[in-house]
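Final report, section 2: Outcomes. Of the targets proposed, Mannosyltransferase is the one most frequently requested by collaborating groups, and we therefore present its record in full.
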Amino acid sequence: MTSTTDPTPLRIESGRRHAVWRRGRALDAVTVGLIGFVLGVIGSWRPSLWYDEVATVHSATRTLPQLHHFLENQDAVHGLYYVVMHFWFELFGASPLSARIPSAIGVGVAAAGVVVLGTRLGTRRFGLLSGLVFVVLPRVTWAAVEARSYTWTMAAAVWLTVLFCAAIRATTGRSGLLCWLGYALGVTFSTVLFLYSATLLIAHAITLLVVRAPLRTWWRWAAACLAGLVVASPLVRLMVHEHGQVAWIPALDRHAVRSVLGYQWFLEAPVCAALAWILVLAALAFTRHRTLPGVRVVMIPWALAPTATLVAASLLWRPIYLDRYLTFTTPAVALLLGWALLQFSAHAWVSRLGFAVLAAAALPAYVGQRGEYPKPSGMDFTSVNDYLATHTSPGDCLLFDPKPAWNPTSARLAKDADPGPLAGLRDLELGRTAASQGSLWDEDLPLAQVQQQLPSCPTVWYVADIEREVPEHIRHTSNEQWGLPSYHFVDTDDYRRLAAHGFRIVDRREFHVSQVVELKPTEAAPR
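The predicted structure is given below as tokens.
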């Protein structure tokens, strides 16, 4: 089977057709970008913030000197994103909605880039279809409600590839120089934004090999890469020095196949993943070789080379592969699916129907991602924070479980999710603040060290793990495994100390994985 709509490798529109693109087809990119933004924003205020997102809020709301001190010690890999979010939060505050809107904007920018790249490599129909596929892919809709830099890694990757393709064509004169200069700047930006994005350069090298680029193009590409990486090198060295940041990543095992083929691009959407792979494999198997170049030279290396690099490094060196770390390869998958749909579409309505089927298969994941507790472990920090903000009184005391079974650190993250409404409460166990010591989280003091302050508390609010009668076991899409032992608050050392000081439970509210326990001195408790 052949298709007249197949994109030819690195065929950038020129002359009259390029003028048409500049006059009218920019509207396609803007329209699809707006669709992606709107889809990203819808429901983004509902999910409770989870560990990574609270890290964004807690880090980016510091002063710039405090943030600089922190990044010298930890999390430099997210430094550029934190700096941008610092200014964003100063303008719009740090609610779940405001924290996630930049991610939705990133989806829009990336979606527009997919349309531009698809149109320039092939046809307007190919660009539009690929852009629409992109905005409904489960990994994209997940990233849109994640207050991290993932959507911007996609945007950086797709626009860097646009510059790459343009630079290959414009190999001489001022336009070529500007394209390669833009490419070098793009390499710097994407690498500083997220270090693993640099693996996209491997994909671009494979593209040059396949198209048999002349030696002068190789030299210009290498010079641009080198210049971009040299500019980024001070931050890269700092990121490498902080390699302990990824020491928690689990080793690959038999579940890696599911992570790569499913979670990486089709998170929590197995039907969508199955349909997508069937479609792509069928297109590769049943279309003639001459219809394959556009896929072979751009999309396949982009999708597979970074993935193969991280998987190989994880197997041969140390674990560094996580499904979400390859989010920046998702535009390539969208382009690949757009191409595959066109291979079986003699008429436009066939490709539209195919897109509708893919979108319908992705819909359950989209809805689930916008529930109240869709994040890893069902973390419920925002819900706990909202409850405390509406039920506590100034002067009340706060205590936090030092290590809930499902959380890497203290339950104080419920306060860190939005400390403003809880500013009038006394955080008894707060030691040195994260800002003062240049760390990610505040220091937690044991209750035994501060229990002498309890008699001055009119009410104690204790944020604890939820009650569990029997142990539970969970496996995240990151392949992390968490064992959750049975838990009863009244059996903890902290409760025994509170009871010894005359406090008794007067109320408790359970959420998804947390509970808030209200305790009062015995003489104040209702009888």
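Confidence is low (pLDDT under 50) at residues 1-8.
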